[in-house]
Amino acid sequence: MSSVLSFPQISSVERRQYGDAFWRSLFYFNVYRLAVAITLMAAVMTFGDNIPFGSFSRRTFLYANIGYIVFSLLSFASVIPRKPYFTVQLTVQICGDILFTVLLMYASGGIGSGLGLLLLASLAAVGLISRGRLTLFFAALATIAVLAEHTYQVVFQNGSTSQFAQAGLLCIGFFATGWLAHSLAKRAVVIEAIAAQREVDLANMAQVNQLVIQDMQDGLLVVDEHGAIRQINGQAEAILGPLRRSPREVLLRDYAPTLAARLEQWRRDPKTNFEPLRTALTHKPTAARFVPVGISRNVGVVIFLEDLSRIQQQAQQLKLASLGRLTANIAHEIRNPLSAINHATELLLEESGFRGQPHGRMLQIIHDNTQRLDRMVQDVLKLNRRDQATREHFKVGEYLHTFVSEFSEIEKIPGDIILIDIEGDPTVAFDRSHLNQVMWNLCRNALRYCRKQAGSILLRVRPGPRQSTIELSVIDDGTGVAEALRGHLFEPFFTTASSGTGLGLYIAREICEANGATLEYVDRPVGAEFTLICRGT
Fold it and tell me: Is-above-0.85 flag for pTM?
């Protein structure tokens, strides 16, 4: 009763211990058993009395052989669906092998038939399949069965006692084979455990590498010798654009032709110096760095994409951090005396005695320059308040129409100079007052340099390069920005206008960053284009 009750527990344990490899090995062992049984049957049916098989009792041999074939076929019935009790099945099958092999030996004249050697292969196979469990027990069973068969032959069939030595050597072979299989199985178990641990370590390392790669601030691509993309992180997709298919199915020349051309040039001459790459997606200067995988540049390569604008901004922030605090303090200190000078100048200008005289012109110059200094002070003070952004959600189309109307009225320009081109009806997430300040700055610059004709300024709204983003561009038909000056556009106190403070574009970009947006200059054949990419809903 206790043994019956213990079977379900063995079943549950074996479900966890014996995996696919065990059942697959047992399946192939059954294939071997069936092949041996069929081969013996074919040999007897073909050669008849010319071979010693069945020489003592042909009928017994045929019945035993047929039973062996049926037993082999029945063994598949439990192995193929992988029913429980692996150890029980293996024990039953090796016991069946011993039984039928001994019967075949008996029908063929005993130990001299050589059929006992078949048990060596069976014991070796069982030892490897069971990972060394019960191997010596099965060898003992085979030894008892062979000795019992030969003893029966000697006692009842007038067998030769001299063949006990041959039976003993065969039994020693059983134990030697069982011990060897046991030792090899133990080593296989150790190696398998080490391999499993290495597999876990490699999987963990792969996950860590994946997390590190995805969290990198630089873009990263891994390209093989055929030009196929093996791996890419999110930052690289943010720079070059999203992949539409699996990375292994995309070639670099189809995904980023310019980058692929630079890769081929680098493979020919690794000392080539490349200019910063500007993608159509972000318009930001990007440096591409190629690192070979291994010792050959033609096998595989890792491509690092470094956003130079981010590095420039970080360097600029470090350089201006202390300067910003200093200028803010100075601005507070000079604002009061500057207001006094401006007020005194306005009082002097109101006196009739100075109107139209050289002193009046000098006072006007003083008044204009104090106004310019006051605007500069206000711009400096705004730098400290740029992070105080309260984002709102509003329709871009309604905002732009209202803005153009107010801008045209205040700047006293015809309303048809500014055109609005909106795709869809997007909603933007931005501080309305901050966006108003950015748009006033960009449109004033565009108005200063455009031809001042109908449609000279275009406000264009399109879906952004990434999901849930809006692209707002201010485009004019002027002469554009000289290439030598484009790198200094967003630097503080840089201006090409004599009356400008040089802080407009710098403050505009800072405001955009405070609202989670970006502001970049885009190269165009004619005119200038400033593109603002912000979050939408």
Answer: no
